[in-house]
Design brief:
Blueprint (H helix, E strand, L loop, with lengths): L3 H33 L1 E4 L4 E5 L3 H7 L4 H30 L6 H9 L6 H12 L6 H8 L7 H4 L1 H26 L3 H9 L4 H28 L4 H6 L9 H12 L2 H25 L7
Antiparallel strand pairs: 1-2
Length: 288
């Protein structure tokens, strides 16, 4: 049992990390809130005083605000569906004894370690190029006209790129969960005559619920702030402008840090609303 002295020593040793972490979070947040109530034009005179909620009203009344929120949520939902469905299938496949299993697992997990900018460039120039891209050659091989991905189906293209990046993460988490499943339970159900579909629905899927919850929560946090993939591929055009990219454009176009900071506050509010919703709907599995 820990003594009062050991607990005090533990708190003392943790204090620098806690202070650093709080500073890392609170200082940028405080500066964002401060700038959001001011008209700060760095290239046109600097700080021009307090403007109240004018930045918030201007940002939310923009015709681009709600479409950007909608695009953000569509991309997040699309990536979550694809990564979870295919993540479960890949995890079950990788759990089977196959030749070169270790190499296959490394190859599947590898895309997660590729930088977002590099990944977007690879997809844009090697896979989705309408003239020399691999997908264009595949389409021509079947006698069809190549798809101009980033202009014809831009949102789905972004979803595809992000799904390729995040599928390894989902697969790794779900594979770990599947490997912790009691094999005797599956064998007993098989001996009782349960088919594969029944075993999957009533045994495997409930066992994966907590892992799926973790995947959803972690991916959502990061997907709400995607930027590099859109910047490299479409530049926010063709309906791919997310809330994060809209903030970037507003600051870049108007050179108004206060307006961008107000957008940042809206982004924080949206992230918290989504997080609370997810915790209420699926987060209860963590307590099961």
């Amino acid at each position: 049992m820990a003594t009062q002295h050991s607990r005090s020593a533990a708190r003392l040793m943790m204090a620098p990390a806690v202070v650093l972490l709080l500073g890392w979070m609170l200082v940028p947040l405080s500066m964002t809130l401060w700038f959001s109530f001011r008209k700060f034009l760095p290239l046109r005179g600097g700080d021009q005083g307090f403007v109240g909620f004018d930045n918030y009203v201007r940002f939310i009344s923009s015709s681009s605000f709600w479409p950007a929120v909608q695009t953000t949520l569509v991309i997040v939902l699309g990536v979550l569906i694809i990564t979870i469905v295919f993540g479960v299938l890949l995890a079950m496949l990788l759990d089977q004894p196959i030749w070169g299993q270790g190499i296959v697992r490394i190859l599947i997990i590898a895309p997660f370690f590729v930088m977002p900018t590099v990944s977007a460039l690879v997809w844009k120039n090697i896979f989705m190029d309408p003239v020399n891209g691999l997908l264009a050659h595949l389409w021509r091989a079947f006698g069809a006209d190549p798809v101009v991905w980033l202009t014809d189906v831009p949102v789905y293209s972004i979803v595809m790129i992000l799904s390729w990046q995040w599928l390894p993460f989902a697969t790794l988490i779900l594979l770990t969960a599947i490997q912790s499943l009691d094999g005797e339970q599956l064998e007993a159900s098989e001996m009782d005559g349960a088919g594969f579909l029944s075993r999957f629905i009533y045994i495997i899927l409930p066992h994966l619920s907590r892992a799926i919850t973790i995947v959803i929560l972690i991916q959502t946090i990061f997907l709400l702030s995607i930027f590099a993939e859109i910047f490299v591929t479409t530049g926010g055009a063709f309906g791919t402008r997310t809330l994060t990219y809209l903030i970037f454009q507003r600051v870049l176009e108007s050179q108004n840090v206060g307006l961008g900071s107000a957008g940042g506050v809206y982004a924080i509010i949206l992230a918290n609303i989504v997080a609370i919703f997810l915790m209420r709907i699926v987060g209860k599995n963590l307590d099961a």
